[in-house]
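Q: What structure does this chain adopt?
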Amino acid sequence: MKEHGIDIEKIKKEEEEVKGKCMICFSRDAEYKCINCGKFVCLSCFWKMLGICKNCITEEMMKRWKEKQML
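A:
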């Protein structure tokens, strides 16, 4: 089934339940999945506003975020 050109059934099959330990710190339970690399990560290792883990955030992204916070 396609909606707006997107195969909904394919997306549903690709969705995985986030479970287990964080794949970065290995100490806390994973709560999120990085949209860039697909790792299951905990809140401490995840940039919720960006949807990516701390390993995937670039220096440029970090610089822009810090500049916005100073405003």
